[in-house]
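Lab meeting, item 3. Inverse folding demo.
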């Protein structure tokens, strides 16, 4: 059925611009709801009405794809950081990483956990109970210069508690003064049992810090490495 162009414009304007329901348009123009529906479809199919979907995250999606291709990565998640403070940014990264972890963690995974403020935020955003049977391994030694809630022992325990399991802890310092001490620790029987899990990890949670445009690295701030 052919419809008058003016009628099509009127119906489309009332529906898309004034946000009226089809029943209201039918009563107002004294036509049936069926006719209103047909007119709207014709207006859309003819190009009289054009709907553009603007993806606000398109630039982020494009960047994720480029990084995946450039570095041959399975999946990249980029977080928008415009106008955010360091604290807000870490919170947003933690939230995004927690969602990603919940997507990929599966039964029998062996998950390695390191230290730091970003990893701490990830754990904060995970649910209290996760019903998956996994093993949790501490993969970074401790440091007396970190606050209790950021120390790897505490972070690993908190993460393991989400799954209701006991973690494999690493009772050793993260950084030692000499290669001799390093070699001695590698031979320590109690530590070797934890080290043996390293090659079996299916997931590793590791914060990499940042040096640009400003230093937000735990290792730098604690003086373990130079800024």
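The presenter then showed the designed sequence:
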């Amino acid at each position: 059925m052919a419809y008058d162009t003016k009628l099509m414009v009127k119906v489309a304007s009332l529906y898309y611009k004034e946000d009226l329901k089809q029943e209201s348009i039918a009563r107002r123009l004294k036509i049936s709801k069926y006719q209103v529906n047909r007119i709207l479809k014709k207006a859309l199919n003819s190009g009289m009405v054009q709907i553009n979907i603007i993806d606000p995250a398109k630039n982020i999606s494009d960047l994720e794809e480029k990084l995946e291709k450039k570095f041959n990565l399975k999946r990249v998640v980029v977080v928008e950081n415009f106008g955010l403070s360091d604290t807000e940014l870490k919170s947003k990264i933690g939230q995004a990483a927690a969602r990603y972890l919940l997507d990929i963690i599966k039964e029998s995974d062996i998950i390695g956990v390191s230290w730091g403020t970003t990893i701490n935020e990830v754990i904060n955003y995970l649910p209290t109970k996760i019903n998956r049977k996994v093993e949790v391994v501490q993969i970074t030694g401790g440091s007396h210069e970190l606050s209790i809630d950021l120390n790897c022992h505490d972070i690993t325990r908190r993460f393991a508690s989400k799954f209701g399991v006991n973690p494999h802890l690493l009772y050793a310092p993260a950084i030692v003064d000499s290669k001799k001490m390093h070699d001695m620790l590698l031979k320590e029987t109690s530590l070797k049992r934890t080290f043996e899990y390293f090659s079996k990890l299916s997931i590793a949670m590791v914060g990499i810090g940042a040096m640009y445009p400003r230093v937000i690295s735990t290792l730098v701030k604690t003086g373990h490495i130079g800024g």
